[in-house]
Amino acid sequence: MYDMNDLVPIVAMLTEKYTGNDSSSVTYEKANQLMEAVVYCIREVQNGGEGILVSQQQSAMQAYRTGVQLVRRKTEELLVFYEHRKSRFCPYGNVYLADILQKGIPAFFRTYDEVFEPQNTILTLDYPILVDVSQYQGIDCVDLYVRNLAQEQLFLAKFGEDYVRTVLRAYCDDYEELPENISGIVFGNVIGHVLAGRKPAERLSETDLQGIYEQYVSCESERSGGFREKVSSVAKAFLRQHYAGEEQMQQYMTAGLTDLCARIEHAAACRKLDRIFVS
Question: Which of 89, 140, 190, 229 could be disulfide-bonded to 136 (CB atoms 3.0-4.6 Å)?
Fold first, then answer.
């Protein structure tokens, strides 16, 4: 959109602001960081649906200033979003989820530098969610992560904390230290109950697991991948039935279905369904 000659004056302006008008004291690494900050803010404008204004009307400096405003607005809106929901967020005993909910996200808002380093995500995001955010940086990454985490919390809340903890403990004795997405574990277990015609609170018997295995054999005898398609269909139907009107939550949980269905199919093929359908 803009060449280097357009960006250098902005970096110079930002450098003077950073150093207090003593631009000669800035290191090469810091100058590069400031250039990345400028590029990040301009891209915010382009990605925010205002690309036509950038290309046809705005100078690089105008685009940069608009981008800074967008970054600040997105950060403020996410803070309001988080503050409104944080009291209802539950880590279910998992240390990775607890760390991001109780320490990581608040630390981000305390330390995020919207002007001099908006591209810095700050958080390591050790708790994995079902949506890949690795291609994003800064507030874009954290915004997507937190909003999807909220959808995950919505999914889990319907089952209640006791049920979620029971499933997690059946899945792994030390689930508290497990660096795995817990909604995927719970959803996998629920899918097993649906396939067996059981309610989520009912325990699956060996007969139930055998019945699911026979469904696998029947589907695969018709066509390869047939069982995976059935599992996916059952999962989506469950979401539509129990989370009607929660389209964002359904989209989030569906994002993890490709991997989950593959795991269930593999478990069926190996006669190890009890490793996924755990309670």
Answer: 140
CB atoms within 10 A of CB 279: 19
Is the pLDDT reported for residue 22 higher than 70? no
Phi-psi map region of 178: left, alpha, beta (phi>0 left; psi -120 to 50 alpha): beta
Q: For 6-11, which contacts have Cβ atoms below 8 Å and span 24 or more sequence positions? A: 6/59, 6/60, 7/35, 7/38, 7/39, 7/60, 9/60, 9/61, 10/38, 10/60, 10/61, 10/64, 11/35, 11/38
Per-residue confidence at 116, pLDDT binned at 50, 70, 90?
very high
* Sequence letter at residue 44: E
For residue 12, give both structure tokens: 């110079």
Q: Are 184 and 260 in contact (CB under 8 A)?
A: yes
CB contact burial 90-110 (16+ within 10 A = b; e otherwise): bbbbbebbbbbbeebbeebee
| Beta-carbon contacts of residue 31 (< 8 Å; ≥ 6 apart) | 11, 15
pLDDT of 100 strictly over 50: yes
Q: What angle in degrees, to the nearest 10, is found between the helix axes of 138-157 and 247-255? A: 100
Sign (positive/negative) of CA torsion 33, 39, 42, 43? negative
What's the token pair of residue 167?
A: 């499933």
The mean pLDDT value of the chain amounts to 93
pLDDT of residue 19: 87
The pLDDT confidence band at residue 135, using thresholds 50, 70 and 90, is very high
Would the CA dihedral through 216, 221, 224, 226 be positive or negative?
negative
**Distances 99 to 91, 216, 218 between C-alpha atoms, Å:** 9, 39, 44
